[in-house]
Amino acid sequence: MKALALALAFAAVPPALLPGAPSAVLTGPGQSLLAITYSPDGGALVVTGLDRTVRAWAMPSQAPLAALDGGENPVDALAFSPDGTRLAYGDQAFWARVVTWPSLAPAGEVIHPSAVVSLAFSPKADRLAVSSPSGTGGLYAATGGKQLAEVRSRCAAFRADGASLVTAQISGALSVVDVKTGKVRSSFSTNGHVPAVLVLADDQTALTASPKDAEIRVWDLKAGKALRVFRGHGQGVHSLSLSADRTLLASTGVDRTVRVWDVKSGRELWQRPVEYSAFAALSPDGKTVAVADGAVVKLWPVTLDADAGTR
Hints:
By secondary structure, this protein is mostly beta strands. The protein has strands at residues 3-4, 11-13, 24-27, 33-38, 44-49, 53-58, 64-69, 75-80, 86-91, 95-100, 106-111, 118-121, 127-131, 136-141, 147-152, 155-158, 164-168, 173-178, 184-189, 197-202, 205-210, 213-220, 225-230, 237-242, 248-253, 257-262, 268-273, 279-282, 288-293, 296-301. The strands form 7 sheets. Strands 1-7-6-5-4 form a 5-stranded antiparallel β-sheet, with no helix packed on it. A 5-stranded antiparallel β-sheet has the order 2-3-30-29-28, with no helix packed on it. A hairpin with a 5-residue loop joins strand 28 (279-282) and strand 29 (288-293). The protein is globular.
């Protein structure tokens, strides 16, 4: 693993002067991007994809920060630790790697039984949850990469106390898992909705989405039932991203739109078209949506839509 020198590999190009056009477009190596995330402080935007590198820009200046060789395979997953001191990335083979941020020094390496599509750090950044499309998951030490427990998960998120993990399984079940033992504390069926993406609005509330389902669903984890549904996407949903205060949610879908929602009410607040079935990251302050759209990153301010009377 080595850091790559950056010169003109990234560039900020002026957006097209069209209604609803992004405020900036960041260009990379010309291959499709597969994951995007902001650092917890909003000071960096990181992407990765088919070119097998992990690339970062400073925000809001959009100046190139770093590029890292991601290994021999396309990289599908990214995650920052909550304190912003570590970055994890996982590839389409068996590897998940952890580096310190922003030095990019190696901190851990995981050999996972299947492709890595979802990563999540524990609140103390000492554990890493790794998930695969096959439903094979695991809990690993973030430093060193030792497996601590086997967990069935297609995607996962830690609760705030770090003692439990919420997982979505290929059966469609949502489960709460004990982090120390890997044992399931509680589980319930989503009745045919098979989540591929999961975020937590709070310790008892999960939001899930699937590329095969146009609805974003909100679940009460304690009661084991659906609370409400966000409707607006015309086809399946690829990505979900919350603001730091968990009041706003960004989503992208197969219908080639990026949308922002009010988490409490489920009301759609903002929408823009994209060119591909993209992936979105909402800035921690909720003021900017970054979208990995094909081989470029598009940035939009989340502002009031005059025609809709919404933010």
